[in-house]
Write a structure and sequence with these properties.
about 65% helix; five-stranded mixed sheet; 7 strands; 9 helices; elongated; alpha/beta
């Protein structure tokens, strides 16, 4: 065999060797790929099975907790519904409507509903964004009531200090207790037989248009009834009773001065009330949804996913 033949034989054998190596490498890569696929499939099956198992447990727990969660959400919903009604009717909530602290003493100490739920741990079971908003709104409402009570007390004192200017005869000023509630009452003398009482709030008293309308009304009834304005709410309750023909000044002047005194304070009850009502309405809609369905599907899904890695 000449030199060229040997070279061709060498090249051929080299190619055959390389092909053999490539085939062996390909078989190994194929085998490795299949092993990886099997491992991936096993891991995927394990994860899916684990997730399904955890999701089932989570769903079962949610069903078990459903009644309790509905009860707590409903309690919050009804509470803020009461607050909304009180705001719309210009009534102050009484401490007796809240949760009484049981500490083994005879002292009356009350927690507002949401604060009490936070204290006893009930809020921990509910959605954070809702409970945070509920706490904020309750605190805003308590602050609103505190400012409103201060405003009403200021009006009460204003009537006392200006009684000689406003009325023919000085006001009868007396304080007493009625069913455990301390009442501070101002009233003009009853010169006729006005036994029938028309009951209103101090919010009506500081409303110029409303007050003028009421004063005209009792004058037109010819001594048949009188007006009674009350702050309501917690003790002490302020009351102002006015009988027909008691005013020394004209009705418009009286109504104007009462209204101006109320609006000269830094607290604007009308604006504050409207702001509170809007925020409470939004919260009520969220609470109403939770009463119907305490835990949504995506919350359950996300919770199950997170639980896998805990």
């Amino acid at each position: 065999m000449n030199k060229k033949g040997w070279i061709n034989l060498f090249v051929k054998n080299s190619y055959d060797g390389i092909n053999t190596i490539n085939k062996s490498k390909l078989r190994w890569e194929t085998k490795k790929y299949k092993m990886n696929a099997v491992i991936t499939s096993i891991l995927t099956s394990v994860v899916v099975s684990l997730f399904t198992f955890v999701l089932g447990l989570k769903s079962g727990k949610n069903q078990t907790d459903r009644a309790e969660l509905q009860k707590l959400y409903k309690k919050l919903y009804l509470y803020f519904l009461d607050i909304e009604n009180n705001l719309n009717n210009n009534c102050l909530i009484r401490w007796e409507d809240n949760e009484r602290k049981e500490d083994g003493t005879n002292d009356d100490y009350y927690y507002p509903i949401v604060q009490n739920m936070e204290k006893n741990g009930d809020l921990l079971q509910l959605k954070n964004t809702i409970t945070e908003k509920a706490l904020q709104l309750e605190e805003k409402y308590i602050e609103y009531e505190r400012n409103l009570e201060n405003l009403y007390n200021s009006i009460h004192e204003y009537l006392i200090s200006h009684q000689q200017e406003f009325f023919y005869v000085g006001l009868i000023n007396r304080s007493f207790r009625n069913n455990g509630t301390y009442i501070s009452r101002l009233e003009t003398p009853n010169h006729g037989k006005c036994e029938e009482k028309l009951q209103y709030t101090y919010d009506d008293l500081v409303n110029k248009v409303k007050l003028l309308e009421l004063l005209d009304h009792i004058d037109n009834l010819e001594d048949k009834c009188h007006l009674s304005f009350s702050t309501g709410g917690n003790s002490p309750v302020r009351e102002f009773i006015i009988y027909p023909y008691s005013l020394k000044v004209d009705k418009d002047s009286f109504a104007t001065k009462i209204s101006e005194h109320a609006h000269n304070t830094t607290f604007n009850s009308t604006v504050e009330k409207e702001t509170l009502l809007k925020k409470i309405s939004i919260l009520e809609r969220k609470l109403a949804k939770r009463v119907k369905e305490p835990t949504g599907f995506w919350e359950t899904f996300a919770g199950a996913f997170i639980d896998i890695f805990r």
